[in-house]
Amino acid sequence: MAAQEVRDADLRVDGVAKRYGAVVALGGVSLSVAAGEFLTILGPSGSGKTTLLKVVAGFEFPDAGRVTVGGADITDVSPAKRNIGMVFQNYALFPHMSVARNIAFPLQMRGVPKSEIDRRVIQAMALVELQGYGERLPSQLSGGQQQRVALARAVVFDPTLLLLDEPFGALDRKLRESMQLEVRRLQRRLGLTTVFITHDQEEALVLSDRIAVMDGGAIRQIGAPDEIYDRPADDFVAQFIGESNLLVGEIAAPDRVVLDGGTSVTVRGLDGGHGRVRLLVRPEKMAIDSATNRFTGTIVEAVYLGEAHKLRVKVAEGVELLVRGHRAVPTGARVTVGFAPEDAHVIRGAG
Amino acid sequence: MTPADRVRRRAVGSAIVLSVPAVLLLLALFAVPLLRLLALSVEGGSLVAYQRALTNELYLRVIFETFKIAAVVTLLTLALGYPVAYVMATSGRVWQLVGIAFVLLPFWTSILVRTYAWMVMLGRNGVVNRTLIGWGVIDSPLPLLNNLAGVLIGMVHVLLPYMILPVFNAVKKVDPNLVLAAEGLGAPRWRAFLRVTLPLTMNGVAAGVTLVFTLSLGFFITPALLGGGRVVMIANLIEEQVRELLNWAFAGALSAILLALTLAAFWGISRIARTRSA
Amino acid sequence: MRRVRPGRLLLAGFAVLVCVFLQLPLLIVFPISFSSAQYLQFPPPGWSLQWYERYLNSPNWLTPTWLSLKVAMATTALSLLLGVPLAFGLTRARFWGRDAIEKLSMAPIIVPTIVLSIALYGLFANLKLIGAWYGIAIAHTLLALPFVVVVVVAGLRDFDVNQELAALGLGASRWRAVWHVTLPQIRPSLVSAAFLAFISSFDELVVAMFLGGANMTLPKKMFDNIRMEIDPTIAAISALQIVLVSALLALAARFGRGGGMPGR
For residue A334, what are the contacts with CB-CB under 8 A and spacing of at least 6? Predict the structure, then answer.
């Protein structure tokens, strides 16, 4: 099997489709992940991201489309022969085997000689800083330690690809943040091509080289984290990632949009088009007493977040703006908020 | 054919291969002999055997008696078993384990062993009568053996665990906070029980009732030993017809009737349970 | 200290009484088995081991005991060999006829034993299998199969299939995944199933009565003996059986959690 010899391989998914009865889980998805890249598939539950991962791992077979790793077509290859490391959502550690035996398992299945297995298991345990835990059972470990074992087990056999299925979901916030960084460090060190699945946008932004946003069995946008955050392709992406203000209106001049409420705002990047557009302004780009594009309204909700204040400002009947800033303003106060022309991102089409 | 179809087909294929040996055994030594027996009961296309079983007063009485015993045993096990299951399930962990041990120990003990012990205890000069006389509760020994009372005691003893265990599991599944919530909403404890615990444990009760009733219908050993020949259930009648009279047609007809009663009870109780819980 | 309600106390008292009722036969059997009297007497006038000696020195009792042990072991092996694969087949794929197969495998516990016994009696008489120990074992396998299937299917439904997927992803073949990962994890179910199969055969009377012919299993010998005379030898055998079952239960608890029960 040629695929097993290839290290740091790239992954290509071409037109993969999968349906369960009448439900379309994947509607012809294509994407490619470069060798050594960390790609995150981000989407709400039911978006098809888990199905896509299972297709790559070989646990589900697609109705149509191909999966290629390092140039070799693995669409019909059984999961046992794909040489892909995977960390499951609940880790799927074998509860009846010690940590060392869990990590040794993939090596035993490959007929690696005993002495070599011992050496590599020790190496892998050192890699995830679990020296001395070899004889423990998974149930005797903390959540973070279990996670490390799962990670060691997934990389000990030099897989061509590493798949991570929402591995941080079960950890508390602090532990999750440190594990995220650790996984990223490990991935860089081993140069492993990695596909990571999550529904947590913050996690996606922190970890990824690129993010693919999925919904309804299709990829809505794929790009670097800042690209996805600052220039979302559509409403879904805009609203799924971070909080947003979406202002709907009509282009009136090369740099002016008249919003549906009648207010006129100045915007960059309209490129002289026509028709209806939506303007995305992130709450942190909204400022109190801004010089341009001003709206006057009443604070209906003020939340203290620690590092910032979040305000909800009602500027017209049914129109509320989110503002994130450092000024504390009490509920009920009248304020003027606005944004700079270069801080609005234009989304075209009626949506 | 897509790879997905191929994989699905392979999974179904291996599932079928795995099932085949057991299925063959069940067909050859369960389904076929049973059908053969039923065929014997209508040998030559005649329903004489059924006619005899369902018109002769003697046999009708046995059928009725079997039904009656099964019903009484079911009610008794429910009345005795539900409180035990409830107390066990709502006790602490240690008492729960003790209770389970006390229920399982007789459950795992041979029916013959237990029946033997009851014969020793229930006789005219048995432990029970002598104790009761010694305490001055009664003057002369009660007839407890070789009659209906003996059969009922023996059957209730054998079948109680079958009632207690499913009800225990059902009560255990009821979130204790629900009862607390009901009490917090103003229901006294007994009403909280009637309105919350009882309805939520009806599936366990239905399982227990189904088990006890259907098992009762086919009882053979207990009536044979504790009934002293005076209590005859359908199973005893069938045995006699085959062993002593070699009357296969009649035994087949009785078997068909017993089977029909059992299946009807099984189906009927699960139906009632389903409509109740719906 | 928590206040105990009087209603609760009453209920607990009732439960204790029922539990005593359940233990009565066991409590009576042990003293009788150690009785020094020549006939049945309770409470015993003195103590001796005569009834145990009589059992252990009597081929009339030991031959049926060995037969029952042999039949029960064969039944255990056979019902696991057939039932475990069936349980996998029933849980791992949906296919046409699966529900029918599941019902068929459960049917032997619903059909009254007497009916199955005479049905098999008719068939085995034609095949000249009456009196063959393996004939009884095969018939007992039918009765044990539902227990094995129920318990193992429950074990497999509780089992996290991701475990097996993980093993496949790590390079194991289907077989090795099942052998190294699935079976060790459903061991409690397998132990319970084996225990249930063994006991259900070892205690079974009605099938053995019809199919055993002149070869008596222990329950058949006990049944005949109880019918003829109430002899304290039975008490000694009963006591031994209770000890055996308790020992098996302890073993089952050691090698799989709990004593296991059908329809857990």
Answer: A296, A297, A298
> What residues 3-32 of chain B have any CB closer than 8 A to a CB of chain A?
3-4, 6-7
CB contact under 8 A, B3 and A62: yes
Which pTM value belongs to this model?
0.83
Same domain as A168, residue A60: yes
Nearest CA in chain B to C5: B189
Q: Which residues contact B218 (CB under 8 A, 6 or more apart)?
A: B234, B235, B258, B262, C112, C113, C114, C115
- The one-digit pLDDT tens for each residue of chain C (264 residues) are 456 677 888 999 999 999 999 999 988 888 888 988 877 777 788 888 988 998 999 998 999 999 999 999 999 999 999 999 999 999 988 888 889 999 999 999 889 999 999 999 989 998 888 999 999 999 999 999 999 999 999 999 999 989 999 999 999 998 999 999 999 999 999 999 999 999 999 999 999 999 998 889 999 999 998 888 777 888 899 899 888 888 888 887 777 654 333 332
The CATH code of domain C61-242 reads 1.10.3720.10
User: Which CATH number does B47-277 carry?
Assistant: 1.10.3720.10
What value of ipTM does the predicted structure carry? 0.87
Q: Which residue of C has its CA nearest to B237?
A: C114
Q: Which residue among A92, A105, A106 places its CB closest to the CB of C160? A: A92
CA distance A220 to A239: 12
- Pick from C169, C171, C185: which is nearest to A110 by CB? C171
- Which residues of B fall within a CB distance of 8 Å from C123? 29, 32-33, 36
Interface of C with B in 35-74 (CB under 8 A): 40, 42
B2–A64 C-beta distance less than 8 A? yes
Task: Compute the distance between CA of residue A347 and CA of residue B41 in angstroms, rounded to an integer.
Answer: 82
Cis peptide, bond prior to residue C43, ω within 30 of zero = yes
